Amino acid sequence: MPPADAPAESPYMTMRGIAKSYPGVRALDGVDFDVRCGEVHALVGENGAGKSTLVKILAGAVHPDGGSIEVEGKPVIIASPKHSQALGIAVIHQEFNLVPQLSAAENVMLGREPTRGPAIDWKELYKQAAGLFARLGVDVPLLALVRTLSVAQQQMIEIAKALSVKARVIFMDEPSAALSGREVEHLFEIIRTLTKQGVGIVYISHRLDEVFAIADRITVFRDGRLVGTDDAKNLTQDAVIKLMVGRTLEAHFPTLPLEPDRTGVPLLSVRNLTTAGRMHDVSLDVHQGEILGIAGLVGAGRTSLLRAICGADSFDSGSLLWKGAALHPRSPHDAIAAGLALVTEDRKTQGLVLGMTIRENVTLPHLAEFTHHGVVSRLEETAAVSRLAAELRIRAPSIEQIVRALSGGNQQKVVLAKWLLERAELICFDEPTRGIDVGAKAEIYDLMVGLAKAGTGIIMVSSELPEVLGMSMRVVVMRGGGVVAEFKRGEATQDAVARFMTGAAAA
Amino acid sequence: MANLQAKATAETQAAAAETAKKRRRSALRTAGLVAGLVVLLGVLNGLTHGDFLAPGNVVNVLRQISVNAILAAGQTFVIITAGIDLSVGSLIALTGVLMAGTLSGQPSPIFGLFLAIAVGLGVGGIAGAINGVPVVKLGLAPFITTLSMMLMARGLAFLYTGGRPIEINNDMFNFAGAGLISVGHIFGIPGIPVPVIIMLAIILAGHFVLTQTRFGRYVFAIGGNEEAARLSGINVGGVKVGVFIISGALAGLASLLLAARLNSGIPQSGEGYELQCIAAVVVGGTSLFGGRGSMGGTFVGALLIGVLYNLMNLLNVQSYAQEVVLGAVILSALLLDAVRRRFFAPR
Fold first, then answer.
1. Among A166, A336, A432, B200, which is least packed, fewest CB within 10 Å?
2. Which domains, and CATH codes, for chain A?
3. With an 8 Å Cβ cutoff, is A22 touching chain B?
4. Predicted ipTM?
């Protein structure tokens, strides 16, 4: 087994001058990229920079228009996903390809079940699966159904699957998107174990702090072109951001407006909100023009709280006071009517109707306003949505564009537009910048600040600590379903908040 | 910053040019299709010695498809929400015998007619609600609730009649469902059938509701992403029950046309109609997965199936063979659609 830094001069796989065009878009324009055995090579770039296209080409799902690929020095043409697998390339997509109703071991060995005669050799199957997990140094219950496992465990299964096909290079597309801080640490340990065994990892992520924590080399793409590749130790986060967006983002976060007056009646008071098994006795206040950040690990009850406030889920006990008066939203409809809005963590499955146009998505919650004598006025819709699309700088050929075709950042702006159309008075953001690029992030932050200045109350849940700290006027920390700490602006430090999130401070 | 804006502008312009190009290409394709269709119709007309495009035959085809097209109109609503309604064939039988039973004791024809319409649409609508409520409240699959309704409604129709048809002696009812409105023999046809007018009215109304009203927008939104629709404040349950009520009530209306034509309520009637209308909807381009579809497409689908039957009759194709051809045509229509989607759709 080669040590981590020995094979530095012999790439396992090299791509040269790869080009790929789609109608109207040059997705990749002559890029070079290589992966060495035993290294972590981070690939960064804004959405639309060409990262996914590169992955699709290597996975055999898409054929390049030009350029050459060599694996172990031999030129190859990757014909199909199966061929890609045979070449030792494995891709772990952001959305996992697992069968939820099958066990962990069955998923790992899916399509490669050892057999004895016509029957599956179960003993051998479990042995092999256990061996793969052991190689990763992780403990996943072999017989547990995948749907009962956590996202982090599911990811282990995906990695074990890649090992079972003897992958030499593993592409990980946004592997930490759904992981909590500790789980990311664990993932890094696994990655280090793999690289020690000579496996090359291509780590694709928007989170630069992670990239710098794990990567040996960093490659930056912009607009389908290669901007540069260098050793991580020669680069800084600011330098990479500059390369990614082609400009410097002086500060990652905008200047927050002055803190609002908290002496009056709060916009929303949450009192002892409890849902069995998800959260208990949650109490907090949000004032007009305030941005309240909620920090916590995945599963700490943050999402449950937002969903209960916005009528998406029912709660067992406790109460909500909206501008001092009792509010009990029985459905999202009730909450929306009162002036609350929920920007869900998963825009594709909860926030948007992907097959509908920008116009149709934005007006969906407020269609009554556009209806006269039973007929929806498309003219009024177009006027209102065009105005918002320009205001939010949604990048699309027209508002009649199907939302599915938009980038993550633009999709998030469409979700936001839904709730700005009728000016919700309190907006609950759940992971507002997940999976969107740096430029769009900055725009979303600016929008949040603009809203707060105009008097809108904001509750923001985020797994990214810098985001919580940079964007919140007050920070509430949740753990195990309850509120464990509250910090004023300036008192909240990364260390202090993290200690409460993980429970280190409770002891 | 300027750089980025320039990039955004360029992107927008490129995309606009792309859209224009797509539109031209699509217009060209449509023109090609229409030209091909005209040639095909000419050839077929020749094959049938001019019978096929004779005004009388055209009106005849429209009359023949009226029942299926009305059922398909209701089914379109259900399928766009990603549901399915298997009960409509049996509901034709149940509402048909109930209407016939209602009419039989009525001395006043006009009162009888209105009572029968109320019974037909009402029972159909209630059955639709019974289909929809368990779907909404308990999360049952529409396939199961409507399959159960299909069995129950058929059984009730037999129980109510003892298995025998109930005769209808009400001229007004027969006119409302199967009459002819004279147009002075202008095209050499005896008149325009009332069922054709009803069908066209339903298709137009359905198109209007789907494309111009809030309800229609919600139907598409729920089929496209039910959770997003719910979180947008839409009363998802209400809309879903609504589409089943529409489908059930339209089954009652279709039953009126059928009963009037046959002068009786027959417990065996409507068998297999649920699949015929689903075929029309799907051939018309509505996705069984929901979120996509149109009333115009459904009408074209029903028309295509009707025309096919008509042609095969004119060409003396044996009736067993007709089923084979019909199945093959449905499959090829869907294959064509899938191929077109795969190769012409943007990535």
1. A166
2. 13-245 (3.40.50.300), 279-351+419-502 (3.40.50.300)
3. yes
4. 0.83
